Amino acid sequence: MASPEEVKLERFLQWLQLNRVELRGCNIKYCDSNKGFGLFSSNDVSDGILLVVPLDLAITPMRVLQDPLLGPDCRAMFEEGEVDDRFLMILFLMVERRRKNSSWKPYLDMLPITFGNPLWFSDDELLELKGTSLYRATELQKKNLQSLYDDKVKKLAEKLLTLGGNSDSEVCFEDFLWANSIFWTRALNIPLPHSYVFPQVSVEQDSTFSSTRKPWASSDVNSGEELANEEGGRRFEVDGVESQVSGIASTSQKGETVWVEGLVPGIDFCNHDLKAVATWEVDGTGSTTGVSFSMYLLSAEQSPFQIEKEIFISYGNKGNEELLYLYGFVMNNNPDDYLMVHYPIEAIQGIPFSDSKFQILEAQKAELRCLLPRSLLDHGFFPACTLQTKSNNKCTEPRVCNYSWCGQRKTPSYLNNLVFPEDFLTALRTIAMQEDELCQVSSLLEELTGSGGERQPSDSEVRAATWEACGDSGALQLLVDLLNMKWNSFALSFDGFDDEVNVVG
């Protein structure tokens, strides 16, 4: 007896074939509950083209606006500024999932039901992130999504469902959360030919997207209900998000490319890996694939072809915090991982002389956070440049000016060699400032500007005064405290993710 995954996959493959998707060098398979579905090589193809998807099948803002059922109301809301292009697609996904006779059902049934990103964490799981920037970002995002759902989404979704004769279908916040997660984990930034996005507009039609040719009309998508009478071949699926496009074929009359966000059934199932073996590209003329206005998956393999090998694309150079926040997974030994060291602005309000320190921070253009790529710490806390010989011309010039004020405080030799950005250390010096140091800064600046404040000191002058008064003792101690807090929260947060797979299907 076929498993639920096999039944969904079979129906989806038929739906892809019915909508002219071509699997030329790959198959789709169910991996496991963690990875979901993945794309695997099936046979060697001389041109390296693994999969071809007509762009007519992509879910884009244009398609939503041209939908025969939902389009008119969505267009009215769009023109009145009630919704933007991303909101349109999220709303469309939410409504189509609830429609009983949706033509997108075979595709929607293949999509994940829940996600591993923090928006889907339980309260106890979310508490494990407390103290990290990820915790704060998740709290704010969930609060904003709930507010958006209560104020706008619920009413709009129920209205659109009523249009389709599904007035008895109730929506809930989880439906909106699901649609939002589907969009942000699977949407691609598609480079489309200008002529495809803006086809020749008929003079008689007063509409931004109306045309004699309607490539985005939902009527072009064959419904899952039609599959019962179809005998057909097999097709497959994949999972992906951001990938580099190495080439774009444009047939635009003006030779322009228009970047449009959208979901591309098939290609959007490619899983992620650091060593991507495929990229996706757009073929506007059909000269590469034989299918005009299509997106295709291109093998990047240089080694001998291996059958049944999973085909990965790259989601981009992202650290583990970003991967977890967007996609719900982390990677062991991620070379693109980074550490964000952050002093919350809310915490400044609770320290002595906060108002004065806020003014000094603004005057110095200081930064309250810094990102440290993993590679920066390959040589400890000192950049590789300091380990080279002094004669090596590749060493950069010192990035910190001499902050000596009349020679009273010498700039230490280490200051130009630390991997921590000076803008961030400047902020920490200010935050850690004691009362007597604050008075000294004011006194030094008065020497420059006059007691009546005849002119405003420059940011470098304020930094020099702060350095002269404070030095680095307080800043470095505060930095150690922040790093200790970060380490403790990270150790707790990612303890449960150490064995997490590095792909999501």
From TrEMBL:
Superkingdom of origin organism: Eukaryota
CDD domains linked to this entry: SET_LSMT
Alphabetical list of PANTHER family matching this protein: SET DOMAIN-CONTAINING PROTEIN, UNCHARACTERIZED PUTATIVE METHYLTRANSFERASE
Official protein name in the record: SET domain-containing protein
